[in-house]
Amino acid sequence: MPDAQTLAPWLDAVRATAASQFAEAEAPSGVDEVWRYSRIADIDLHAYSPVSDDAGSAIEAIGIDGAAATVVIRDGRIMSLDRTDALGKATVTSLVDHPDAEALLNGVRGEAIDAIAHLHDANLGDVVVIDVPRGHHVPAPIVIDVYSDVDGGLTCPHTIVRAANGSGVNVFERRRSGSASQLVVPVVELDAAPDARIGYLVAQQLGTNTNSLEHHVAQSDQQAHVICSVAAFGGSYARTRADFRLNGRGASGDLLSAYFGDGNQMLDFRTFQEHNAADTTSNLLFKGAVTGAAQSVYSGLIKVAETAPGTNAFQTNRNLKLSEEAWAYSVPNLEIEQNQVSCSHASTVGEIDEDQRFYLESRGVPTTTAEQLLVSGFFAEVIALMPIDAVKTEMQTIIDDALAADRAAQEG
Amino acid sequence: MSELVITDLHAKVGDKEILKGVSLTIRSGEVHAVMGPNGSGKSTLSHVITGKPGYTVTKGSVTLDGVELLDLPAWQRAKAGIFLAMQYPTEVPGVSLQSMLFASAVEAGRDADEVKAGIAAESERIGFDPALITRPLNVDLSGGEKKRNETVQLGVLAPKFAILDEIDSGLDVDAMKAVTRRVEDLTNQDEPLGVLAITHYKRLFEELEPDHVHVFAAGVIQKSGGPELAEELEQTGYAEWVHLVEKDDGFAAFHDPSGNTTFAEDLHLHEG
User: Fold this and answer.
1) pLDDT bracket for residue B243 (50, 70, 90)
2) What secondary structure letter does DSSP report for B173?
3) Are residues A364 and B78, on separate chains, in Cβ contact within 8 Å?
4) CA distance to A307, B36, B228, B248, per residue, from B240 (Å)
5) Is the CB of residue B61 less than 8 Å from the CB of residue B20?
6) Residues A340, A369: contact at Cβ < 8 Å?
């Protein structure tokens, strides 16, 4: 990691310390609740090596028209960083170029919680920092396009979004990889100061031979609002853990996901809605479909601290099972230490509703089209809530196309 | 002139036989009323004709102008010209009336603009709120709005035959008039609609005059006649038919309060 190494000795120290901690850390096992039902036991974390700078994985970036800034990351390195006037006073930089670099890195996440986090820190690539000053609203989304394609390669992307008091920003991250067998361990930190607003969406479109262990950590201060969303489609075993912390009075936010699994993949989600202050609100809506021999896991916990009276916390996970072999697991949980709360959780796993399909068919809509309309409609609810308007149609189309391909394959 | 011919139709749900030999012929422009007590299998008849899952046809046929409908999937039956106005229209979150009818139009080779204009015209005609056209189908709609919605679809899809399953249930007087008048109009147009109206009450016929009335009980048509039969039923109710109970051997029988049980055949009940 030449550039970063020469520029930031402190960062080398972080990596080195993490490397030795990783060497000693116990790999997660399916016995831990947070890894139950996962495929972590099938992944040898030591089998992957950091990708060298001359790996040269290349693919054309997919941006958003009118984006305030576009960052292109290949094999863990920032290849280009295009800023426009729309950024205004906000900055988009590599971590090592930021004056608060040391405080920013893992400032929201905190200490590494497990071997995966040590692995991430030890192999940290270029970190993107989006910093929005007090009262400033970035009018267009900031785009980060990430790609890697090295056999046996390990990449650890890291994005930090910091929104100061009363500011606002939307960030769209696109995660892709080639067909090489590889491991991606991304971390995303979202930090919303009082009255700030952050909208974040990651489109996970990894290759079918990529395993991914992603970690999102968000914190909201007083009256801040954070939307943390994931559209997950790719990967072999692709996991997203989200720690959503409401730390200031009146803070609120949404945790959203649309996921579609096919082939033999497993999409795995673990969420923690942590209410640490009074009058905080969190809404979680995760909607997914699995077909072929795909599997999905959703496990979520709402934690309400004693210090958080007046909490409103909602958690809804809905799954469509589109084939015999597909399998969806859904485990909602509550842990409440406060009486003055309003919490609910709901989870369902079901097939396409037979009566709904018949209703459309009885109007002359062919079966396949009827199913596409129903699945598309199922996802429309959650996609509508996601923060990046410019990619909503694309997210819907990815699902529609995946379903069409699946139905065509089933018809043989 | 089209013809919907139901011949000796038998169907069951699980192991329970619900339709036990229904025969009925409907021609374009005719209105046939099928009346009967609750639980007699009237709705099953509508579901079996239109191909709703969950039923097994064990015998008989349903043809539309000679084409066997029972061999076709539900959507092809609709495409062939059969429409079902449901008793309880299904709520379909995420799919609007407009996108459903567009999808149907694509399959039928019809122009989307024509369909859009058709939806607007039909909505206006029967007082269906245009704001509901692009909202999820039947979600959060009142009973009256749901039945108006069904009637808009009937007008736009322009089928050869419509089966109206208790279209009068859950309707206020205004909605009832709007819906039945529109159906009546369709039976008098150049290519007239044939109607099979399943109902419990005669009030449906205030605007929609039936040509034939059939009493349906215990899975068969027990008696057929003209509009006067509906009048008669209004006077006597279904008392004569509601005591039909199912015997283990599958024969429909009258249950006499005196304790004697008489088989239906002995009473010279005929099938339509």
Assistant:
1) low
2) H
3) yes
4) 70, 11, 17, 21
5) no
6) no
- Closest-CA distance, B238 to chain A, in angstroms, reads 31
For the CA atoms of A383, A384, A385, A390, what is the dihedral angle to 10 degrees?
A: 80
pLDDT per residue over B83-125, tens digit each?
Answer: 999 999 999 999 999 999 999 999 999 999 999 999 999 999 9
**A62-83, pLDDT tens digit by residue?**
999 999 999 999 999 999 999 9
For residue B54, the chain A residues in CB contact (below 8 A) are 354
Decide: residue B228, CB within 10 A, 0-12 exposed, 13-18 middle, 19+ buried. exposed
Q: Supply A101's token pair.
A: 């670099």
Query: Nearest CA of chain B to the CA of A379: how many Å?
Result: 8
The domain limits of chain B are: 3-236
User: Cβ atoms within 10 A of the Cβ of B16, count?
Assistant: 9
Q: How much of chain A exceeds pLDDT 90, in percent?
A: 91
Q: Report H helices in A267-362.
A: 354-361
Strand-pair category, B220-225 with B212-217: antiparallel
Return the closest-CA partner of residue A175 out of A140, A210, A151. Answer: A210
Q: What is the CATH number of domain B3-236?
A: 3.40.50.300
User: Which residues in chain B have their CB less than 8 angstroms from residue A356's CB?
Assistant: 90-92, 95
* pLDDT for B253 beyond 50: no
